[in-house]
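Troubleshooting log. The previous structure file for this entry was overwritten by mistake, so regenerating from the original sequence record. Sequence copied from the archived sheet and checked twice against the printout by T.R.
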Amino acid sequence: MRISLKTAVCLIVILAGTVKVKAAIGFPEEVQASLALKVPGNAAVEYPLSLSGLSGAEYEWKAQGQMPMSLTQKISAEGDKQRITVCLTASEDVYFNFREWVPTGFRHEDCLFYLPGFWYRRNLRSPQSAPSFHSSDSWIVREDRLSAPLTGIFNEVTGDYMTVSRIASFGKEALTTHKEGEVILSGSTSIGFTGFENMKGTAALAFGFPYREAPKTYMRKLTLAPEVTAFQLLRKGESVTLVWDFYKSNSKDFSDFVRRTWQDSYDTYQPQPVRTAYSPEKMKQVLSNYFVESLVTNQPLVFNSGAHMPVADCQSVAVAEVGFVGRVLLNAFNAWEYGWQTGRNELKADARKVFDSYLVNGFTPAGFFKEFVDFRKGYEEPVHSIRRQSEGIYAMLHFLAFERENGRQYPEWELRMRKMLDMFLQLQNADGSFPRKFKDDFSIIDKSGGSTPSATLPLVMGYKYFKDKRYLASARRTAVYLENELISKSDYFSSTLDANCEDKEASLYAATATYYLALVTKGKERQHYTELSKQAAYFALSWYYLWDVPFAPGQMLGDIGLKTRGWGNVSVENNHIDVFVFEFASVLNWLSKEYDEPRFSGFAQVISTSMRQLLPYEGHLCGVGKKGYYPEVVQHTNWDYGKNGKGYYNDIFAPGWTVASLWELFSPGRSEKLLAR
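Regenerated output below.
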């Protein structure tokens, strides 16, 4: 948004104690606000506030006693929304924190809650050591945790919902010396807070400025810390302006609520493509250096080192990971294809070494991929994941299809892939799902079905490549499970391998899986899969940032100018952004044509341009040690994986998957072409 911050502090909220306001938003007589003022070295003093009429739609927040600040609030219509403006003016130098609560009138126990990119429903898939209803039924968080600075509350009984969105320029951030308790900002910030609270059984929207987090702040993976309240200095005679929009409507279910709220947020924040000097061709040229420098050839398996790598020097590590996060086989195929396209014989030769070594040494006794091997420790992971196995087959079927198209065939690889797909048929459950984790003897370690859509892709590809209808039948059964358990319930979970919670990748894989099925079916069946893909795509989109979070001076990502719009948050447990997109932009462009929906293609372009920003090359290494090793754990809020915090990366990363993801982003329509053959 391009609303400038003026010298006056106007907080825009939607409530006041008049009949007119009551009709617009409901229960205004229960609206509450408070102002906390802090003198350095002393505990803050909290002033409960009450509304008093001035004139027209303008009101004043007053405290019982004298306080060194005046607050006025104005209410106006903004289309079908209500916009609230509260202006804070200091009569002496003060450090302040303002907050307000708007009761929705919904019973708290009837509601599902939405903080985009961070909180879905009640976060009950997440453990107690991450933000969830397991720990509390009331949460407020700093806005930069969220893909849009918004809270929504959905009444599951009536279908009514209410949202509050922050409207600001979001250009400033300030450092603090502490991350919990009462903290004084070193300068001005644009980051406020938002969330929901249980007010004596009624669900309420909670919001304010500057940021607070309660009942806990989420500081590290599975680490909750004490709450935090930030105080910003306002000098005598100065004012500050803050704005929120409120919206109330009705949806048929939580999924439709998420869809409508994302569309409204897209229209509100209007994310535009990021201007970069890097074309897709330039991106691939630079990224290809990763294929060259990361190759490990002194082990039984040849592979591109892509996991557990130090960010500082990007020295190769003797860990081979077939799928996520290493994506060894997909990187080998990308290098192979690119070598043919550009005449780079060294890339072809290196990729061939990878394929040949995996054909000889890359399979378990049962015939599954050795999906994770740590040669440093002599350790081979005995537990398989349906996701990594699927990603390995996916990569090899792309390779085999490319080779067949060019008159070359590999019968040994074909036999291996058919055997793996046949074993998939054995693993599939009666409801169409696949177990998340299992062993070589087919014993189940984790029966959770959240990773099922990852298996749909190789099954559809196997059907097209081998002309075997059993694989298509199996893929169709996965779609039944996806529709019944994930998509219809808006419950996307357990796709991220190092977390078992609500995550982006489950919805992204669900959208891609049903896209694949739509590409190989016709008529009403095709339309049904297309609808499912659209529904899942909106949920996946909700994880992607529609705005640019600010960074403080000295935080590297801000100093090099990173714009966060188009980047996706990962999961409830892993609260950072990354470039996980793979084929999702192709799905969005396809859906845009299917439904004549320009928001899909428009945001696909935002994703495509924004994810080019951290391309590392000489003189522009973006904090990593080598050219083309694209960064992974991009820490954009007050959270870290164990090192460095906001504005930096963790100390180790996995460029294997980031390079593979970007490569697919810049190879649009690849699977559509394969499935059309």
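The chain has a mean pLDDT of 94. Archived copy saved in two places this time.
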